Amino acid sequence: MKLFTNGSAMSVEDIPVVDFEFFARSIAEAVKSGASIVALFAVPDYGKGAARTAAELTALPTNAATEKRARLFAFLGLPTKGMIGGIAADIGSAFPSLTPKIPQAHMFEREIFENTGIVPVGHPWLKPVRKIFDYDFYSLEGGQTHEVAVGPVHAGVIEPGHFRFQCYGEEVEHLEIALGYQHRGIEKALAGGPDIRTIHFMETSAGDTTIGHATAYAMLIEALTSTQPDARAEAVRGIALELERMANHIGDLGALAGDVGYLPTKSFCGRLRGEVLNLTAEICGNRFGRGIVQPGGVGFDIDEKMATSIAARLQKIVKDTDEAVGLLWDSPSVLARFERTGMLKKETALELGLVGPAARACGIERDVRSDYPSGIYKYAAIPVATYPSGDVYARAMVRMLEYQRSASAILDVLAALPAGNTGKPASRALPARSVALSLVEGWRGKICHCAITDNRGAFLYYKIVDPSFHNWPGLAYALRGQQISDFPLCNKSFNLSYCGFDL
Amino acid sequence: MNDILAKLLPLVVALVFAPLAMGIIQKVKAFFAGRKGFPVFQMYRDLYKLMHKGIVYSRSTTWVFRLAPLLVLAVSLIAVAWLPLGGLRGLFSFQGGFIFVAYLFGLARFATLLASLDTASAFEGMGANREALFAILAEPATLLAFAALILTSGNSSLWGAISWGQESSFAEFGVVPLLALVSFFILALSENSRIPVDDPTTHLELTMIHEVMILDNSGPDLAYIEYASALKVWFYLVLMANIITAIFSISGWAQILAMFGFAFLLAGIIGVVESSIARLRMKKVPDFIGSAVAFALLALVLEGIL
Predict the structure, then answer these.
(1) Confidence class of residue B236 from pLDDT cuts 50, 70 and 90?
(2) Exposure pattern of A405-428 as b/e (b: 16+ CB <10 Å)?
(3) What residues does the NADH-quinone oxidoreductase subunit D domain cover (chain A) (predicted)?
């Protein structure tokens, strides 16, 4: 296994290609010792060293009768070492599924099956991950069981997704989540890049994680082109990323209050989320931070006057939010709803490979910012916020701790903004036959971007793993044995992205 | 002539002021949420708007679904005609009237339940299931609370049950009417689908009780149901206001004025309750309604002893 740090690039040949048995055993051993799969994907027609250009690949007939050949890449996060391990194996039209031994591979293997038609033999439940429209859902039979179908069109202004509940009375026995309604083909559209559109695809792959995905992309390009952004640019990126985290966590806490009908926190947090978004808009003119992060640096600087103003406003926001959120913990009726709702055991969370606040709320101390630090996180250590109980309360608590710690980190960085300029755009000319991988702790959790370039230095394959990809199965598990009326609350406590999953 | 006017007055007052009470509840909620809230008269406009809209019927529905809103409105109007206002008896009044009124509301609920099942929607079926369960639990509380009051007043008409105290002082009846009042307040929350039992403002179908049953209703049908809900809230507010004025031995025109004051004050209190506590977990709702039964039972037992 080739070990490298977060945000580094290497030649594709540096990733050892091993026989499948060794490949499977290495991954299983690493996972057993605490590693997690950050990306697992198959690049079609890669075997025998015959990497073609993306244009040639798309010209290939998709349903070629010939035996499909692909290279299976696996990237593992090794938190104890602070490194990422890469390993690969060439496969034919089928391979023995890793899932029975490594449950967290199950979504990745389904994705491989869906994208390439290569069959992971022995996968316990092989079905597509995104194109699940004419599919027979698992269903319960019996006198008092009933089925409830929710979505894809919902009552609120939210993204489309279909939820199929198998209930026994009010109790949910099984929940199946069908997504893919927002599939835009981003990964396919990125092949052949990078070009002028690439950054916009990144910023909109999950709109509420604009900074997170753009930062992961920028790190990747910088790794491939050996560009080192200025310290000041890194600082601005860090501030933007933490502001994004704050805005979303505060919004989520308000939404959690709203779902249990507790209005004061709901309305105050709704407003305060807007104030944080306005701080981002102060920097770049856009509330979601579009245009801040660019490969090579940042598009907008924070001058001294703006830094003072942001710091002052931020302190006010944190004070107000602490008060509004404090009401939650002071209301027994709210605690009664949050506690022991949507419980997820630590073991389950580890097996499923959950990430972000959802994992940390199960007591799992994992955070890209401290496990695989990059940018400002190399210097500004942010304490990892965890809570052991794994319920809605824990997920709310982790969110509160995180927005508070983000705020103090932002204030620290603002107080000592490094000198320097904001950097100039990195070149789009990438080295040929290279691979790069970057991890960013977005507000939902670990964002992984991985790119492989072809013979001409264009993207042959670009893989985006949004944290939601890891976490949707966690929501389905958390609902087992719960009251169906608690689903909206559990769902909100995870608050996963549909478009980030669908890509 | 004067007599007829006096009899009609409580009904007319209910028809006119019921939507205002709903406006007050939402205004108080808006205040606690730090919002301005929509105008207190908004519900009148909404009803007017709905009355001018068309109705969409789902293909799976039958005449049951079309009849239900009319039945709900008609039954609610009749029930409100029993409602006294201070010293003024309702339009109708007879011994045992409270049972008649209680089951008029039961009939309205039955119509809503059938109509919601008629839509063949999984959501609405779930809502109907919850509504039926909670109604069963609320029924003994209603009857027991009335029984305690009737034993106090010795008159089993709805008017008599809650207007016993004109000539007596609070000390004489002591705690019984107070306990019945608490019971009615809990019932007012649960029977009218308010927080902590139901959340009238939520958009989450899976958590709804009453709202989910009327998801398929539109236009004038929805207006009928909304108006009937407002009448029911008004019914409970005036019922409680009657008991309060009776406790304080207010009578005559002062009582009618005080009734208004207390009715709107109670609407405000409902708003405060809704703003200060979260919804109960669905599993815990029976416990909450059970507490209404407990208060009513306690009132009845104390009345028997004293």
Answers:
(1) very high
(2) bbbbbbbebbeebeeeebbeebee
(3) 259-425
CB pairs under 8 A between A and B: 86
Structure confidence at residue B45 (pLDDT): 96
The verdict on A259 and A289 lying in the same domain is yes
Q: Where are the domains of chain B?
A: 21-28+48-305
Q: Is there a contact between B174 and B114 (Cβ–Cβ < 8 Å)?
A: no
User: Which pLDDT value is given to residue B90?
Assistant: 83
With CA atoms as reference, the chain A residue closest to B201 would be: A261
As a whole number of angstroms, the distance between CA B293 and CA B140 comes to 6
Residue A306 lies in a domain: yes
pTM of the model: 0.90
Chain B nearest CA to A484, separation (Å): 7
Nearest to A343 by CA among A362, A323, A364, A363: A362
Mark whether A88 and A195 lie in a shared domain: no
Which of A150, A171, A256, A263 to mutate to probe the B interface, most B CBs <10 Å? Answer: A263
Residues A353 and A233 placed together within one structural domain of the fold: yes
Q: Output the pLDDT for position A133.
A: 66
CATH code (residue A241): 1.10.645.10
Asked if A168 and A192 sit in the same domain, the reply is no
Full residue range of the structural domain in which residue A339 is found: 186-502
Reduced to 3 states (helix: H, G, I; strand: E, B; else coil), residue A174 is: strand
Q: For chain B, give the percent of residues with pLDDT over 90.
A: 58
Let me know: does B122 contact A147? Beta carbons within 8 Å. yes
Beta-bridge mates of residue A172? A167
Mean pLDDT score, A207-223: 93
Question: What pLDDT band is residue A308 in, cutting at 50, 70 and 90?
Answer: very high
Whether residues B196 and A261 touch (CB distance < 8 A) is answered with yes
Pairing of strands A171-178, A2-4: unpaired
Contact A155 B29 (CB under 8 A): no
State residue A63's pLDDT score: 47
Cα separation, A215 vs A212, whole angstroms: 5
Same domain for A261 and A245, yes or no, is yes
For residue B118, what are its two tokens?
Answer: 């008629």
Task: Answer yes or no: do B283 and A483 touch at CB < 8 A.
Answer: yes
- Beta carbons within 8 Å of A316's beta carbon, 6+ residues apart: none
* pLDDT at position B168 over 60: no
Q: Give the nearest chain A residue to B275 (CA atoms).
A: A263
Query: In this predicted structure, what is the pLDDT of residue A47?
Result: 47
Q: Does B203 touch chain A (CB under 8 A)?
A: yes
Q: Chain A contacts of B34, Cβ < 8 Å?
A: 264, 267-268, 271
A129: in domain: no
Mean pLDDT over each residue of chain A, to the nearest integer: 89
Same domain for A428 and A465? yes
In a domain, A251, yes or no: yes
- The string of pLDDT tens digits covering residues A49-82 is 444 555 555 554 454 434 557 889 999 999 888 8
Query: Shortest Cα distance from A429 to chain B (angstroms)?
Result: 49
Domain identity same for A495 and A425: yes
Q: Residues A205, A82: one domain? A: no
C-alpha span between A433 and A449 (Å, rounded): 17
Structural domain includes residue A427: yes
Q: What is the number of domains present in chain A?
A: 3
